[in-house]
Amino acid sequence: MKRRKLLSYCSIFLSGFITACNSNSQKQNTEISINIPKNLKFTITDVNNLQELEASYGELRKTLEEILDIKIEFLPVENRTAAAAALVSDKLDIAFAGPSEYLILNSRAKSIPIIGVKRPNYHSIIVVRANSKIKSLSQLKGKTIAMNRIGSTSGHIGPTKLLMDAGLDPKNDVKIVMLGDQGLKALVKGEVDAWVNASDTYNDKLAKEKFLEKDFDIIAKSPLLPNDVFVANNRLQANLVADMRSRMLTNQDKILQSIILADKKYQGASLTTANDSDYNMIRQVYQNMGEGSFL
Fold this sequence. Notes:
Blueprint: H1 2-32, E1 39-44, H2 50-68, E2 71-74, H3 80-88, E3 94-97, H4 99-109, E4 112-118, E5 124-129, E6 144-147, H5 153-165, E7 175-178, H6 183-189, E8 194-198, H7 199-208, E9 216-221, E10 228-232, H8 238-250, H9 252-262, E11 270-272, H10 280-288
Parallel strand pairs: 1-2, 1-3, 6-7, 6-8
Antiparallel strand pairs: 3-10, 4-10, 4-11, 5-8, 5-9
């Protein structure tokens, strides 16, 4: 009887010992499951030189470095296509991109969305002069429209969808000219019939050019556009990307403060989870334009 009790106690002891060992082993595996790189290369897709990156986004770089506990270094790229190439060649680890830029990075480099930056008043608007006879989108047929640049979410893709939804063919029913920052001046001079812009930068642009809001009419406004997004190189460990996402969400106030220092259009923004499907609207516009292969 005593022997049976002894064997029973030994069995319990060994069982507990094995369980503790397995628990410690699992804990150790969890702790070492994230392979932390010594540094991460980071860029902003629409800033193409190191000096401007440091001047505008230096605070963001420092904030990310503090939050992620990894050294962050800037890697300037010429454009979104160059950013995709840098991701493919492993020269770039993280990028902050606009919605349209994200599609290029995802289709060409299979980049992974980390976190989205949601701007609460981010719409495309189509603007005419207040004295214009154009009061609706259908009246733009045969007219000239100033857009920003090819691929711009608010300055090309968003307004193109507005035209399509109104039954207009952007290639045949209207003349589109890409004028960058000169579109508003061209509208005032009568060189174009309408101008497109993002709603959250509209008033600032009017003020900068010393124009009054009463001198213009907004004839169309899109639904809220997809979010800007931080993306990761798909070769980064999945657990590392998940850890970065968690840390960024937890410290979103610090990140947003740093982003707003670089660009006031992000005032009122919030961080949110980002999913590839959030950008299907932009894909659809490219396909409807017959330019799906661009992606």
